[in-house]
Structure formats: structure tokens, C-alpha cells
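3.2 Worked example (two chains)
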Amino acid sequence: MVTATIDGQEVHWINQYAGSAASSSTAAGQPASLIASACPYCAVQTTISTYVGAAIQSSTSSIPASSATASASADSANPLPVSGPNGGRGSWSRHAYYNAEAGDSYGFTFLNHFGGTLGKPGTADGGPAFGASLSYASPDGKSAAASPQTLQNQMIEDDVEVIVMSNRSCEGDSCGYTRPGGVAYHGFAGDQKLFLMEFSMPATGKTGFNGDMPGIWLLNAQIPLTSQYGTNPECSCWTSGCGEFDLFEVLDTGDFRCKSTLHMAPAGGSSDYFQRPKDKTIKAAVLLQGSNESAHIQILDDSQSFDESLASEAVQAMTQDDGKGTMSSVFRLAGGS
């Protein structure tokens, strides 16, 4: 448990600094696919896009530090090397896109945890040890649907979670173990991934469990496909380190700080934070590079577009910080060069 006093307020979180270099495999030998979850009160605003492509050079800097200090593996000093397929440069192709205002979506499936309820597809087989399985999310994200739906252009309310996965359903054993009869889709595989998003996190003024505590994070797809909220932690690979990456997470009700924390082996986090976008949307890039074992979160300029393809140079440019140390955070995994 890490305890830090940030601007006079005590904040707690857990970092698990254990293990050696991260492996590209996960539970049951499956690829390190990821899902994106938004919870509990993030705006469904404008766009979310995912890309795959060549690795690029990425500059690094730290986000604003508080008066507290904590040991972490977030690297804010050394630049990352240039690399790509066969050592060259390449382009990034957009594989999925969602525009809430226009109602456009392709390549994504929106899910939640209402498996086995109201006669909707999904199953809770396995009992409370496994928890409710996945279901198709209703347009407002609050309940289950009988078939894939596109999220409406509205807020995701407090204590509501929407899981964003690819549109590739799990056939046979292609996803490893999945809940019998349940809804199951692939995450986003590949060791070079780029997520671009625009969102806001308005204050709701609510208190209590998950009140006014929004978050956006990535999970290894094995977790929701098996057991994300079961009562027996041994039913999920989360405890064995298969991976969670909190991108923008508010840890205290009504707080203005968004934390970034890596829960896996190795793990990392610090007392640094991004400013919570309460009053307007922001654009952000999340770049995962297996070639140098790094994860880069970057706040983008408002003029950034989410095009169908991106040149490597364009991705490199969007992951440059502003020189003031306020726009980016980099996690370098153990063993990275």
C-alpha cells in the first residue's frame, strides 16, 4: 500500500513491485489482448480509435509531481529507441473507430456484466466464485441487450462500467477459456498498439461507493472472459499478474487528479497525476510498444485528428511532450532497453 499526501489530502493505492521482465504471453498461453473499460462516469464523447503498426521513437517526461514521493517504475528521463518491423519505419492502420456524436462505430463491441440476467445472452455458470459473465451493453450502458448495440452520445453514469472489445467473436478455443454459453469477444492483440481517445470526466457531486470517481483502464482480455468480479480471486488471472493498466483513474470522490498505475509483473505507479478534464474534453494517446517494452500515455493537442491511417512520423510527433513535463507519462517494463 502506498500512502501519499497530495495537496494536503491523503491518497492510497497499491503497487506490486515483483517479477522479472514482462512476458508477451498470459494465462493459458493466450496473446496479451487488451480491453478498454470506462467507469464509472466518463463522457462518451466524440471518438475512440485503435491502431496497430510499427514501433516509433517516443520522448518522455513526467506529469506534475506532488510534494510526496513514492518508489515507482514510471520512467521520465531516458528516450526510447527507434524500431519497427525488420528495424524499419511503417504506418499505423486504424482497426476500430467510435464517434458518439455521429453514432458511427466499427471494429468495437460494447459489453458489460449482466450475463445470465433478464434472459439476455450470457451466463453466470460457476456461481458467485466467477461472478456475472459478459453481456451486450444497452445503448446507455446500464443494462444488458440481446445483440450488439452502439453506445449513445451521453454520459456513462456513476458506478456503471462499459467494456470495449473488438468485433471478433471467440470461436472454438481461439480465446482460451471462456464462460460456457456466454458472450465472448477478442481484445486487441499485437505488441504494437495505439489507442486514441477523446473524453471528459465531469463532476457529479455524488458520494458513496464509486461516487464521482471516474476511470479509464486496460485489462488483459482473459480477465473479463473468465472472472472479473467473482468472489474467488483464484478464478481470475489478475492476481497472478496477467495485467491491468489504469490510464486515467480518480481515486478519491470528487478529486481532480487522474492517476496512472500498472498492475502486473513488473508493476509501477507514482504520486504524479494528470489533471482531470472536468469542464471540457481532452484528447489522449496510449501507445504500447513491445519492441522496447514501454507504455506511453500522452495528452494531445485539441486539433489532433484520428485518421484512418497514421505515418510513423505522425505518431512520433503526437507522443512528444510540451517541454514542461506536464503532458505525458511513460512506463518502462523491467528488461526494456
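3.2.1 Second chain
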Amino acid sequence: MNATKDLLSGCTTFRCSFESQWEQRAKGITSMVAVYFPKKFFAYCIVTSKKCGYIWKRVPAKLVPLLLANYSFNNHPIHFIEVSMDSNERLSYNSVKKYQRHPGCTAITLVPAGGKGMFPSQNACPYGVYKFSEVGIVEVDNIKIAWPKRAHDQQSIPLAEIVELNAEDEDGIYISKIKIRNVSSYKAAYTTLEPNTQMWAEDPRW
């Protein structure tokens, strides 16, 4: 181990903690982009100096607002683009909209679980969990990456309320709130995330 440390001592990446690297990356987040191809896929991308994101296949339309709410960041817009393809395989834009979590929101933001899970939780990890903060994923400018402690699914209450913005107005004028199905249809899988319960999956196979 000491030999390994000596070997890496001159490496700038090794000398800079992952927490510092994450803080710099988080401060560079400007917005998000989500693309939905009905019955094909839902993909989202975080817009920073380097793009990163995720894609799920065969996502039903009714699930899209929930994903937008759960995977968006506080105080940052998410641009939503719905596309389709005609018989000649030409793409067209069905709609282009801009959403954002409600002003003052302090809710967490999800990241996908292993196995492409849309609804990660601490209790769903068979190998135990780490806190996100223990691996350097700390809160930065109201960006909070975390998993709920209790299990949740597509019938659960969304993590945040999102509103539609005027896409042409840089000042963020709100057009309307987005109703994510009927609140009465949600089951109480969880309410809110308790302080200091941000979690990160731990798998002994890694």
C-alpha cells in the first residue's frame, strides 16, 4: 500500500480529493436536457463542461413527469424535448419545453441505481450502503444527490413539484405547475428524506 501511495504521490488527480472534484463539477452545472421518444426511450443529460446522463428504454408517457421531477436539480432548469419518427425515419420535434423545480425547493435529486433502476432506495440495496457524503458527494449550492431510505416506485409521491417555464424568457417566468397524475393515487412509500441519510450503494463485488 505504501508503495502504491508513493507511486501516486505526484499524480494531481490523486492529490485532489474526490469531494473537491465533485464540488467543482457541481458548480459547473447549468441545466439539464431530457429527450423522450414515446415507447422507445427516455434519456437525460446534465449540462456541465462534460456531459453525463442516463437512458432508459420503453418508458411509458405517464412516467415522464415523475422522472423529470425526481431527476432534476433545485434552481436549475431542465429542457424537455419529445421526438417522433415518421415512416421515412425522419425525426421531428413534437414539443420543446422548459421545466424547473418550484422556487425554494430543497429536495434531493436521484441518481440511478445499479441495474438501471429508476427508483433507488437504501432499503433496496442487498449489500448495504454508504452515505453519499462518505464518498465525497456533498451538497453544493442546493444540489443534493441522495436516495430515500424507504422503497418507492412509480406510484409514489414525487420528490419535488415542477413548473413549466417560458422557454423564451431568461428570467424564468412560470407558466403553470405540472400535475403529476392524481396525488390521491400515490401510495405512502415515503414522505421526506431524513437529514444525514443520503446513501450510496455498496457492493462487495466491486
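3.3 Remarks
Residues 19 and 136 are 4 Å apart (CA to CA).
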